[in-house]
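Please discuss these two lines.
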Amino acid sequence: MKAGEEASGPGSEGQQKLGLCVLCGLPAAGKTTFARALGHRLRQERGWAVGVVVYDDVMPDAFLDEPSQWKLLRQELMKYLDCFLMAVINGCPMSAPPNRTEAMWEDFITCLKDQDLLSSSAREAQPCYLLTKIAVSRSLLLVLDDNFYYQNSLGFCQLFLDCPLETCLQRNGQRPRALPAETIHLMGRKIEKPNPEKNAWEHNSLTIQSPACSSELSLEVTDLLLTALESPVKNVEDNREAKETDRLICSTNVLHQVDQMLRRIISQTMKEAKGEQVIPYNLKLLAEELNKLKTGFLEDLRQGRNVKYLCFQETIGTSEVMSCFLYEKDNIVQKYFSKQN
């Protein structure tokens, strides 16, 4: 079989196995280097089709310093990945989405083509990208160095690269486009290692000390990936009544969990604000804004807005919501702390 050969449908040797491996860790912890080395090894030793998607490689440089654009583009990349996965699952060509950032889309396509997963051809006025035989006939693993999640039937696992904060800061300082040191400090205070005992969805997880290259570790990682491929997370059955029942149960549980967690976050934030000697009037305004933010997040959950993954797995919905809330909360807090200065 030649690399890059085109195919129109899935392979004939049984159902294709699909997996998603998420790499977590601080910036400059070595996620990108590890992902590329892992992809190369899996292609050479296992014969798998591997797609390594590095967010920084496909996001336009012009938006790196704009947090609001960064968030939107991250969501846009998730849509691109969904397009690719649905094409693989359905055994059909992938079309370009109508609403897209052209430079980002082209970089995404180039990323997949460079890994022999896509070959492009134009059909009429709409670009169309054919899957290669490699993409549809072998076990396919997507390796992402960011926190993405999908509702498709995939095997899921995560690797957490545990790297000392000072090492990350030193590596980051050597990068052409270094992140502010305070950003990495903030992430270091918030990031949490996988906790399979607490979160069922993190069962297929492995914490790795960075840098990592031992042969024993390679076997451990491969075993984790094989386990994930053999245990895909199933979609909810296509039954409207059952879906609605599951949604209501899941929503109730998530609402309660999120409400309690948001209350704790707001309480801790107010304590920190008092410690920063924020004046009483601004403390009052800060509390009002944070409670308004909390109310909005809970209402979005209650109505099912902007949380498409909520009914898929309870803990994933909670994790994503908390991440979004902390991002919005930090923007508000920074505004009031700036007033104080």
User: Anything to note?
Assistant: The first helix runs from residue 31 to 46.
